[in-house]
Write a structure and sequence with these properties.
- There is one protein chain.
- The protein has 350 residues and is an alpha+beta fold.
- It folds into three domains: 141 residues, no CATH class; 37 residues, no CATH class; 158 residues, Trna Endonuclease, Chain: A, domain 1 (3-Layer(aba) Sandwich).
- The protein has a six-stranded mixed beta sheet, sandwiched between helices. A three-stranded antiparallel beta sheet has the order 1-3-2. A two-stranded antiparallel sheet has the order 4-5.
- The protein is elongated.
- The two termini are 30 Å apart.
- About 3% of the residues have low confidence.
Length: 350
């Protein structure tokens, strides 16, 4: 079981804005569940945004107006008898706080009022909702999370990400199609956070390592250049220092090991996957001075299976299969990640 406070630390690496002064008090708060944690992050983030001013964007409006503006819809004006009233149906752009991102935030705040969070937190949310009076809500089941961020709306990136975590974490579809509140963070959502946390930990704490800011893509080393229908190879984390390279594939499952033919073992597809990454990366480095590329399957430790740390030499490459224990204090998590960097890349945190 991951302590809620560790989820906060993982989020603080995944979203660096949480290390700013406005969020510092969260670190000392005690949370009974992840919903409470996300509510705290979101309320503080919204307060910060309100100080800057709610983001606005041009929203397309269609209304019957006595003073025409924008594009006049003559057909609609005749159909609605607007012309008789001395009005014309017009479509125009209005610079408004009723933006899609503000609608996501308002919808999420309203959902949190139904969650198992403290009454004081709910009062805080209700006070914030006053500032969203001109903002409409969304059907939370059909929200489009593919939002483009730019320099003007960058401050919304973390807020929208937490909203997605809340909405997807607090709702679950029943067999009859209805919705109910669920325990926060299933394996799929935790996998993305787990992967992002490990990547950003090394990106933040090891400035002298070459760490990809996002997952790196690899090309299949085919003999004739024909790659049609081949799946994409996307590694989670690639760490490089000098001539040493370590590829980490982060895995977060309810169960890490599988039983086959009466024997417990690493899932075959996971091992094949990391070995393929290692060999492909090594082929990319032909002609460049380098040591053998190493690979690692880094599983989040489960209570049932316990910890393991096995290393294999496979066709000349070092492949490690180990667990990361997320249940202790956060310093122990850092120590485990630091041990990996020191052992495989011979480097210490700055």
């Amino acid at each position: 079981m991951i302590p809620v406070q560790n989820v906060y630390y993982m989020l603080s690496y995944a979203f660096r804005v949480l290390n700013e002064q406005g969020y510092k008090s969260i670190e000392t708060e005690e949370f009974h569940n992840v919903a409470e944690l996300c509510a705290s992050i979101l309320t503080k983030g919204v307060k910060q945004q309100l100080k800057r001013g709610l983001g606005q964007e041009y929203i397309s409006e269609t209304k019957a107006l006595s003073s025409p503006r924008g594009k006049i819809d003559v057909t609609a004006s005749i159909k609605n008898l607007s012309m008789i009233r001395g009005e014309l149906v017009c479509t125009y752009d209005e610079f408004s706080v009723n933006s899609y991102m503000n609608r996501i935030i308002k919808s999420t705040l309203l959902l949190l009022l139904k969650a198992k969070i403290s009454s004081s937190r709910k009062k805080e949310i209700k006070k914030l909702l006053v500032f969203f009076g001109d903002v409409e809500t969304l059907d939370i089941h059909t929200i489009n999370w593919s939002i483009r961020f730019n320099r003007n709306n960058q401050s919304y990136r973390m807020l929208v990400a937490v909203c997605e975590l809340v909405i997807k974490g607090l709702l679950q579809t029943q067999s009859d199609g209805s919705k109910r509140m669920m325990d926060f963070l299933d394996d799929q959502k935790m996998h993305h956070l787990y992967e992002k946390f490990i990547l950003e930990y090394y990106n933040t704490e090891y400035k002298h390592l070459k760490v990809k800011a996002s997952a790196s893509m690899m090309d299949w080393q085919v003999d004739d250049g024909f790659r049609d229908l081949l799946p994409k190879m996307k590694t989670d984390i690639t760490l490089t220092r000098g001539e040493r390279t370590l590829i980490i594939d982060a895995k977060y499952y309810e169960r890490n090991l599988r039983e086959q033919y009466g024997k417990v073992s690493i899932p075959t597809d996971n091992l094949y996957q990391i070995f393929t990454y290692v060999k492909t990366k090594e082929n990319e480095l032909v002609g460049v001075p380098h040591e053998k590329v190493s690979g690692m399957l880094l599983y989040a430790k489960t209570d049932e299976e316990g910890a393991f740390n096995n290393e294999y030499q496979i066709m000349g490459n070092r492949v490690c299969v180990r667990t990361l224990d997320l249940s202790g204090d956060f310093q122990s998590i850092k120590s485990q990640l630091d041990d990996i960097a020191e052992k495989y890349l011979r480097v210490r945190a700055e």
